[in-house]
Amino acid sequence: MPKHGKKYLEATKQIDKTKVYPVTEAIELVKNVASAKFDETVEAAFRLGVDPKRADQQIRGAVVLPHGTGKVQRVLVFARGEKAKEAEAAGADYVGDADMLAKIQGGWFEFDVIVATPDMMGEVGKLGRVLGPKGLMPNPKTGTVTFDVTKAVNEIKAGKIEYRVEKGGIIHAPIGKVSFDVQKLTENLAALTDALNRAKPAAAKGIYMKSVSISSTMGPGVRVDVK
């Protein structure tokens, strides 16, 4: 077991581990116990009644949080010709094709999200070994493989996040910063919860949303009632 610091242990004393808190109360608690010197990210963890090993129970998608994440995402777009110009006009941080592929092969990763037009995926796919493990591979399910690069860039800049079920049926996703007010964090959590409810696989049996907890980067988890 990892050793926790004094601040973390102090924070856990304020949280009743046996209790499932109403959303507003849970968010207030997370904000109150956050003690780091930086603006911590607030994360939500959903434990779902799915088996990620089964292809028909994979959950992957994206949602635009109404108030963003508090972090401005750096967007790299792989496109050519008119689509490259469109990406630049939309505010993409980097746009290119072979030049950018070569930079990534050389170890450059000064970006957070990649968008690619479908005709570029043959080339981008060759970087699968490098991009895959970092979770950076563009994917049609998350809207990052598209000819509508304007929409893709705008949504990412507006606070679009991706989610993907991990082993154990867990989904982790950011819902904002500790500095956000309670209402903004509540509305972001609601948008994510709605998206996950809509993404429920037909093959999932029994209770779908088993438990939800929220925490700050350095803080303990607080169980929350999202019903």
Features:
single chain, alpha/beta, Ribulose 1,5 Bisphosphate Carboxylase/Oxygenase, Rossmann fold, 2 domains, five-stranded mixed sheet, 8 helices, globular, repressor, structural constituent of ribosome, Ribosomal_uL1_3-a/b-sand, ribonucleoprotein, Ribosomal_uL1-like
Give a structural overview.
The chain is α/β, with parallel strands linked by helices. The chain folds into two domains: 128 residues, Ribosomal protein L1/L10, rRNA-binding domain (Ribulose 1,5 Bisphosphate Carboxylase/Oxygenase); 84 residues, Ribosomal protein L1/L10, domain II (Rossmann fold, 3-Layer(aba) Sandwich). 32% of the residues lie in helices and 22% in strands. Strand 9 and strand 10 form a beta hairpin. Belongs to the universal ribosomal protein uL1 family. This is Large ribosomal subunit protein uL1. Part of the 50S ribosomal subunit. InterPro entries: Ribosom_uL1_bac-type, Ribosomal_uL1, Ribosomal_uL1-like, Ribosomal_uL1/biogenesis, Ribosomal_uL1_3-a/b-sand, Ribosomal_uL1_CS.
